[in-house]
Amino acid sequence: MANVSGKKILTVAISLLAVLALLLEPCAAARPVPVTATIDGSRSLHLPLRGSLLRGPESVAFDGHGAGPYSGVSDGRVLKWNGLARRWSTYAYGPGYSAKGCTASRTRPAEVTESTCGRPLGLRFHYKSGNLYIADAYKGLMRVGPGGGKATVLANEADGVPLRFTNGVDVDQVTGEVFFTDSSMNYQRSQHDRVTATGDSTDRQKKKYPKTKSVTVLQSGITYPNGLAISADRTHLVVALTGPCKLMRYWIKGPKAGTSEPLADLPGYPDNVRADLKGGFWVALHREKMELPFGPDSHLLAVRINADGQVVQMMKGSKSVRPTEVVEREGGKLYMGSVELPYVGVVSE
After folding, report:
1. Total Cβ atoms within 10 A of residue 74
2. What is the pLDDT of residues 235-277, one digit of tens each?
3. What is the four-CA torsion angle of 159, 16, 218, 10, rounded to 10 degrees?
4. Cβ contacts of residue 9 below 8 Å, gap of 6+?
5. N or C: which end of the chain has fewer CB within 10 A?
6. Is residue 193 classed as helix, strand or coil in its secondary structure?
7. Taken in order 149, 83, 178, 218, is the CA torsion positive or negative?
C-alpha cells in the first residue's frame, strides 16, 4: 500500500478449531456432494522446508511480480521460495524474533516459543506498493515493505481489547483496503482447543483506519468463523465457518452493506478461503464431516465453489494431509499449505 494513511482496513474475527474438538462436536450430517471434476491431490510436488522441526506453511502468497510462494512458518519467519536451486530464504520476521531464541529443538518446540517469536498465519501482498500484510497470531496485523525485513505492527487491539488470535488477511487491490481476522477475545492460538471446548463466540468484525490506528467493531456473535476472502467484484467477503461447515457472505458494498447471509453448505470443516481465477473460491477442508480414522486412505482436501456457493470441483488426497489453504495460479497449478507439514505442496489440475 503506497499511502497507508486514510486507507480502510476491515477485520472479521474467527475461531480456529482443534481437530479433536471437531470430532467431538461435528457439524451437521454430510449431504451428498454433486458429481464434479476431481483432482488427485496426492500427486503433488513438494517444496520442502529446511530444518527437521520446521513446520506449518499455513498461508501461501505471491507478490505482484509473480515471485514466490511466500509462507509463514513455525519459528515466526516468513519465507520466500527462490526455485529448486536456492530454495527457501528468510523474507520477513516480526518484533521479538531472533534466530537463536526462535529455532525449535526437541526440548523447546515451537509451541513454547511462538508467543514471543510470533506465528505468521495469513499473508497477502498489496501489488501496487509491494507491501506484505501479515496476520500474526500473537503480534496482530503487521506490514513489511518491498524487500522484506523486520515487520511493523499496525494493529494489536480493538476498542481497547487486545487482538489475541489474529489469523487471516486479504487485500482489495484497487482501494488498498485490508481485511483481517481475529479468532477470539479470550484465547490465543496455543489455546485454540479452548475456543471450541468453551463454545467461545467472542469473534468480532472490525474496521481499522491506519491513520488513527483505531479499530471499529462491525459485527459479533458469528459461530466459529475462520478464513476469509474478498470477492472478484469487491462487493463482499466470503467467510468460512468451521464448526457449522458453512460459508457466509458478508456485504461490504451496495444496498446490503453491513449484513451477512449464508452462501454454502460444505462437505467438511473449512479453514482458509482464497479467490480462484473463475470468479469463485477454493476452500481448504481440514477434515470431512463424520470422517472415520479407518477405511480408504483418502479424503477431501479442498473444494472449489462458484459465485453462487455451488461445489464445482473437488481435490482428494491422503488423510495424512490436512490443508489450511489452497491458492490457484495461472497454468492450472494449485499451491497448498498446511500447519502440520514441512513443505508447500504444488498440484496440477
Report:
1. 25
2. 999 988 888 899 999 999 999 999 999 999 999 999 999 999 9
3. 90
4. 141, 154, 155, 177, 178, 179, 180, 207, 208, 209, 210
5. C
6. helix
7. negative
Query: Can you name the CATH fold of 9-29+59-287?
Result: Neuraminidase (2.120.10)
Q: Residue 185 carries which DSSP code?
A: S
The contacts of residue 74 (CB under 8 Å, 6+ apart) are 53, 54, 55, 56, 104, 110, 114, 119, 339
Contact 80, 89 (CB under 8 A): yes
Q: Are 218 and 250 in contact (CB under 8 A)?
A: no
State the Cα–Cα distance between residues 51 and 73, nearest whole angstrom.
11
Q: Enter the pTM of the model.
A: 0.87
SS3 129: coil
| Boundaries of every domain in the chain | 9-29+59-287
pLDDT digits (tens, 9 = 90+) for 163-200: 777 888 999 999 888 888 775 555 555 444 444 444 44
Pure H helices in 57-126: 99-102, 110-117
Whether residue 118 contacts residue 93, with contact meaning beta carbons closer than 8 Å, is answered with yes
Three-state DSSP at 197 gives helix
| Block residue for cell numbers 508447500 | 344
Reported as a single tens digit per residue, the pLDDT across 5-46 is: 444 444 333 333 333 333 344 576 656 655 568 999 999 999
List the grid coordinates of 280: 469463485
- Look up residue 106 and give its three cell numbers: 526437541
175 Cβ contact list (under 8 Å, min separation 6): 7, 8, 234
Residue with cell 459479533: 220
Total length of the chain: 349
Q: Pick the closest to residue 104 from 49, 141, 163 (CA basis).
A: 49
Q: Per the structure block, which three cell numbers stand in for 199?
A: 463454545
